[in-house]
Amino acid sequence: MTDQLTTTHPAAEAAVVGRLSTLDRFLPVWIIVAMAVGLGLGRAVPSLSAHLDAVRVGSVSLPIAVGLLLMMYPVLAKVRYRQLDRVTGDRRLLVSSLVLNWVVGPALMFALAWLLLPDLPTYRTGLIIVGLARCIAMVLIWNDLACGDREAGAVLVAINSVFQIVAFGALGWFYLQVLPGWLGLATTDASFSLATIVGSVLVFLGIPLTAGFLTRTIGERTRGTTWYDERFLPRVGPIALYGLLFTIVVLFALQGHTITSKPWDVARIALPLLVYFAVMFGGGFALGHRLDLGYAKTATLAFTAAGNNFELAIAVAIGVFGVTSGQALAGVVGPLIEVPVLVALVHVALRLRRRYSPEALS
């Protein structure tokens, strides 16, 4: 993974990029290849999705869980847990993140779903569920690649996880039944399992977070901080990207046949997602800049606002509406759009970074 730069000079950034591994430097290419492999497998072997989805622990797909654990652990092992107090004491960052994630994000997705998919109720419901599932997984990868604040990212993801357990069901009831009723729109009956939400959070965040914390604590005590940062982390760092690529292959293999057989439906679902990612990222970056948070925290605020927990959204959609439902398809199309868009936004963030003075990079 890239480390945080200490200068805004383009030549210095180019020098850092030149020192990146082949895996890091050509990440967009590998992601496109992984998406193509997953779609190809799902198309060539229609029964593959059923076999992959059948390997589960509770409501969690085991192959996806393995990929996410590999992806999350190295990033969380990099977090300097002793410095978390400087993040939790920043009320501007915490309040801004809560408002963007739990007020603006769900409301924006609700509005986009109804405006752009008024004639497709199943896809519309799926997108609303996606809007309620706030980021807890892949966002740490994008934040790290964009040189965001790792400690801030860990704290905001943890806060989103707690709110997810408490608020997901209530917000689902509000946006699918109460608010449409107030506005004279069609309502959707859906019941969300608290066990599904808790299980998703515990698997996708709890396990790698605990492992990352214990690794850093034990590693620093036994071998020292210098060894941990300079010897251990470079060895485990690439595992995160391998996990990301594996997860992408599995996700797209699960619905490869459906995605490739319904290209127009995928395009219809993609449009509100594209608008959503652009507005949430741009709004988060503008707000962070307005609050003078510095580049690192501003980037973290923007990525945690734009990212979504598609794993949870897919699990809930399948659990409530079925694996072949339109709601589940909308959830699967999410990462199809999110992955390339947020990779592009990483590059946008790094370009915006040049606008900050070295003193403002924090």
From TrEMBL:
Keywords: Arsenical resistance, Cell membrane, Membrane, Transmembrane, Transmembrane helix, Transport. Coiled coil: none annotated. The lineage of its organism: Bacteria, Bacillati, Actinomycetota, Actinomycetes, Micrococcales. This is ACR3 family arsenite transporter. It holds the Pfam family SBF. GO terms for cellular component: plasma membrane. The chain crosses the membrane at residues 26-45, 57-77, 98-117, 123-142, 154-176, 196-215, 236-254, 266-287, 299-322, 328-350. It is a multi-pass membrane protein. It comes from Lapillicoccus jejuensis. One of its GO terms (biological process) is response to arsenic-containing substance. Its main location: membrane. It comes from the Bacteria. GO terms for molecular function: antimonite transmembrane transporter activity; antiporter activity; arsenite transmembrane transporter activity. The keyword Protein biosynthesis does not apply. Belongs to the arsenical resistance-3 (ACR3) (TC 2.A.59) family.
